[in-house]
Write a structure and sequence with these properties.
The chain is mainly β and about 180 residues long. It is elongated and about 45 Å long. The N and C termini lie far apart (about 70 Å). The protein is about 15% helix and about 50% strand. It has one helix at about 5-25, and strands at about 30, 40-50, 60-70, 80-85, 90-100, 100-105, 110-120, 130-140, 150-155, 170-180.
């Protein structure tokens, strides 16, 4: 029996053990939900259809403005929200959904979210249905006064319920302020 075989088998085990040992202190700094944060109002702007397909009519990046009301952690770590955005090509999306905060240390927050709502395309890209689903995440820095500044990255599509489902991506810069 070769001594190389056990060494090659042990190496991945040692790497996994070192990874778990090294990750343990970092895990203590990750907290799900933000139960002490009040409801918030978010405003932002960005670009819609940032990965355009020039074959689709109306496709192409355009400006976007949004506003949301975020209720805070109402259902355990889940935080419901409602919002709307409009684009420079006349598209409108009114939506509601849920997100949850993943806090890294005290200041860095990642908020994955999902929503469903009503979409009209204006002169922009036709997403194939009026019912559209949005999923993505926001990456924020939380200030001492509980305001946040971050970047959101999202995908919107009809999840196959329409005749066609081109989908679109959008990116936003968002300022979130506590609503007291």
């Amino acid at each position: 029996m070769s001594t190389r075989q056990p060494a090659s088998w042990a190496a991945p085990g040692i790497l996994v053990a070192l990874g778990v040992a090294a990750a343990h202190p970092a895990v203590a700094q990750v907290v799900f939900g933000s139960p002490t944060d009040p409801p918030r109002i978010a405003i932002g702007g960005g670009a819609f259809d940032v990965l355009p397909d020039n074959v689709r009519p109306g496709s192409g990046a355009t400006g976007l403005a949004l506003a949301e009301y975020r209720f805070g952690d109402v259902l355990w770590i889940l935080a419901p929200f409602v919002g709307a955005f409009g684009t420079g090509k006349g598209a409108f999306y009114g939506y509601g959904g849920f997100g949850f905060d993943i806090n890294f240390y005290e200041r860095l927050v990642v908020t994955p979210s999902a929503a469903v709502g009503y979409f009209t395309h204006g002169t922009g890209i036709d997403l194939g249905a009026h019912t559209e689903f949005r999923e993505g995440a926001e990456f924020d820095y939380r200030f001492e006064n509980l305001s946040r500044l971050g970047v959101g990255m999202y995908h919107i599509s009809n999840a196959g319920i329409g005749k066609h489902n081109p989908g679109a991506e959008f990116v936003t810069l968002v300022l979130t302020m506590p609503f007291r």
